[in-house]
Design goal:
Shape of chain A: globular
Order of helices and strands of chain A: EEEEEEEEEEE
Radius of gyration of chain B: 13 Å
Order of helices and strands of chain B: EEEEEEEEEEE
Largest sheet of chain B: 6 strands, mixed
Strand content of chain B: over 45%
Number of strands of chain B: 11
Number of strands of chain A: 11
Distance between the termini of chain B: 41 Å
Oligomer: heterodimer
Largest sheet of chain A: 7 strands, mixed
Number of helices of chain B: 0
Strand content of chain A: over 45%
Shape of chain B: globular
Structural class of chain B: mainly beta
Largest interface: A-B, 29 and 30 residues
Chain lengths: 116, 112
């Protein structure tokens, strides 16, 4: 089955620690995205990548980092510089980059990160 | 600044009735508008896309309208069922080639 997987589903971290969230897709999609969702809030874009070895900052990139070394994978690192990292993190992909809103985004199941 | 507004209050309706959700936007000129469904603790799922030159789009019990003059989209679910209970998000392309901006979503609760 094609789709997007995120792991782990739940993640706990101590303050001051970096943590990496995994996102893998086997849909052969070019574009991938990371969003953050807080309770009662919409999705806010952290980073996105339209092609391998290239990525751009979204609206709330501070305290986060990403890499896109393979088409299938787009891991997100939450660094200790992120002031309020507790949130629900969603990864998404889209078939074609550069097509704006004309293509649907496919979402993974999400990772809930809690900082203790 | 650009803004997308969805009613933050939950919409409660009776089974069988038509649910209507609203998405208003300001300082955008989107060519496309999308609607997604999100269940608690899960990722959003795409439902419908409508283009700026389309007034209406239908898919089974779902209907979306897009009024670029009013800067508004309406999302209708006819003959609603308890299984339709979820949060519904609208999303607009964000002015560059590859980004969407999402509204905060409206929670729909369909009761028997």
């Amino acid at each position: 089955d094609g789709g997007i997987t995120q792991s782990p589903k739940y993640l706990f971290r101590k303050e001051g620690q970096n943590v990496t969230l995994s996102c893998e897709q086997n849909l052969n999609h070019d574009a991938m995205y990371w969003y953050r969702q807080d309770p009662g809030q919409g999705l806010r874009l952290i980073y996105y990548s339209q092609i391998v070895n290239d990525f751009q900052k979204g609206d709330i990139a501070e305290g986060y980092s990403v890499s896109r070394e393979k088409k299938e994978s787009f891991p997100l690192t939450v660094t200790s510089a992120q002031k309020n990292p507790t949130a629900f993190y969603l990864c998404a992909s889209k078939k074609t980059s550069g097509t704006g809103g004309s293509d649907e985004q496919f979402f993974g199941p999400g990772t809930r990160l809690t900082v203790l | 600044s650009q803004k997308i507004e969805q009613n933050s209050e939950a919409l409660n309706i009776q089974e069988g009735k038509t649910a209507t959700l609203t998405c208003n936007y300001t300082n955008y000129s989107p060519a496309y508008l999308q609607w997604y469904r999100q269940d608690p603790g899960r990722g959003p799922v795409f439902l419908l896309l409508i283009r700026e030159n389309e007034k209406e789009k239908r898919k089974e019990r779902l209907k979306v309208t897009f009024d670029t003059t009013l800067k508004q989209s309406l999302f209708h679910i006819t003959a609603s069922q308890p299984a339709d209970s979820a949060t519904y998000l609208c999303a607009l392309e964000a002015g560059t080639a590859s980004k969407l901006t999402f509204g905060t979503g409206t929670r729909l609760q369909v009761t028997l």
